[in-house]
Amino acid sequence: MLKEISDVALTAYLTLKGYKQIKPPKVKGGIVIFTFDDPNNKIATETIRFFNRDTQVDALELVELVRNFKSQVSILKRNAVSEVSNE
Prior knowledge:
- This protein is α+β, with helices and mostly antiparallel strands.
- The protein is built from three helices and three strands, in the order βαββαα.
- The chain has helices at 8-16, 43-51, 59-86, and strands at 2-5, 26-28, 31-37.
- The radius of gyration is 14 Å and the shape is globular.
């Protein structure tokens, strides 16, 4: 099953937990969407654990991934605006 996520911190957390993105991120209505493979339907549970702060991951790795994903989001949004203005 596919799960679309737009939250950068959650995307970083899921990546650290071993979930794989199966498509490149895309811009949908001005929001960047990351698509994960969720064959066992466990992302919903991990999402609840993340927002309840009921989990542990390496803080430095999480911060690094959040920075990387924020950079990707910025670039994707900039490119999306450029493509719209060039049409």
